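Hi both,

Apologies for the delay on this - the queue was longer than expected. I finally got the S-adenosylmethionine-bound model through. Below you'll find the protein sequence and the ligand SMILES exactly as submitted, and right after that the structure tokens for the full complex including the ligand.
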Amino acid sequence: MSQNPPAHAPATLRNREALWAVLSRCLPATGLLLEIASGTGEHAAFMAPQMPDGLHWQPSDYATDALADIDAHARASGSTRIRPAIRLDVTAAVWPVEQADAIFCCNMIHIAPWAAAEGLFAGAGRLLSTGAPLVLYGPYRRNGQHTAESNAAFDESLQSRDPRWGVRCLETEVVPLAAQAGFRLEEIVDMPANNLTLLFRRV
Ligand SMILES: C[S@@+](CC[C@H](N)C(=O)[O-])C[C@H]1O[C@@H](n2cnc3c(N)ncnc32)[C@H](O)[C@@H]1O
């Protein structure tokens, strides 16, 4: 086990309360919440201790070297409801989880090729049953337009790092993809710093 403190993502401290306010009212009381692209695992460590007893949190990431840090944050949280982190690449045709009762994915689809968004919705469509929530968080364009100068600058910096990355458009890209995979957009929640939380339901 590493002696270094686990990785820390400062943004998680800024968005976790607002995220929990949304998640806590749409998550089921029992079953499995699958988190995609957990990163440092700090959202799990903050939220899982506040979840109902019957709900368990499965963190995951495609970066193998993230998994030990996710587990370290989980241990530090003291929560027994966080499962050991697993490697999950959303673009894989088969995921290492066969069923989930809710899926949460924060800040991934703009920092990955579009194939990751396609893989996310396809996989969520395979795992979730009718009515189950899929919750996404991040910056989005609305009807093709950026909602803030800071998001436009962020988009530019993303695309300069990798031209396949970028802030996605809710109406022309994300919602049509979701519909194709069997999801309807139930709610759009404005979040701090020009981000949105999107609540989709499996049809
Ligand atoms: C900006 S980080 C977000 C981490 C965390 N959700 C948060 O908000 O702090 C993006 C994450 O997406 C993960 N990721 C990128 N492509 C992925 C893929 N194809 N499948 C699963 N995770 C992926 C990266 O490894 C990284 O942990």
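Main takeaway for now: The radius of gyration is 16 Å.

I'll put the files on the shared drive as well.

H.
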